[in-house]
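From the pipeline queue, job 12 of 40. The input is one protein chain; the requested action is below.

Action: predict structure.
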Amino acid sequence: MSADSDTDRLAGLSEWNNLKEVARALDVHYMTAYRYVRRGRLAARWEGNGWLVHRDDVMAIVCPSDRGGTPSALPTQSVDWPRRLADRLVAGDETGAWTVIEAALSAGWSARDCFTDLIAASLVLLGNRWRHATTADLVDERLATATAMRCAHRLGTRFTRPGRRKGVVVLGTPPGEHHLLPVSIAAELVRLRNYTVLELGADCPTATFVAAAVRAERLRAVGIGVTRAEHLDAALEIRDRLSARLPGTPVLLGGQAVANPEVAALVGSSLWAPDGADLAERLDELLGEHRRVHEHAIG
């Protein structure tokens, strides 16, 4: 297959192309192009009654291999991974979404980066689309969120490390806070640090939060996820109740509602983290400090 024939096929591409046009540009069967989309190898968006693929994504893989023109693997630097995953999530396509995550791992992404810069980033991308949500958007939102949660759990399970746990961390959201996915991703990131995590889910009553922390063996910390500012008061009530019942136990606030030190200072919290990755790192730093102080006191 000549470079001239590649150029001729590509010259006919518009900005967005249906699968027949993509198959012609790639010189593959229509069903092959469809499988590329379904498996996450080729980014696409669903519009009307079919898939559309951007010209740049086709250009990125029109590189004939030694096997007679089958497109080679996507170059890592050309792939918009969050957009690719977002398209699978919004379709409720767990198999395709997981294929994208596996492809990112194969391309050198760490599990941590897949949680923060792929799964979470794809949902931020979708959230921007849903800023002025219609009924159809709300359906897409639920499909995407549920699919992302299943993929996040699957990713976390794949990277579970053997060995002794560092202790228990209790995580949940306060009464009224229904955004569960950020806390679920945070839980997986904390597990990657070799902690046992007790997830209390969303909209957790204050008394349940306290009871779970009191009965947890080897409790190291409690994390309260807050996405919306109107739920900060409920989170602070949980923090204060825990501090009274379990003095000395770190209670961290986290999430979009506590995204900077100014907000943390305003609500009187020195223990805070803007996202799950920061929470996991903060726990290691914080608990390392506590252990050193404890060891010094014993010595």
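Job complete. The CA atoms of residues 92 and 220 lie 36 Å apart.
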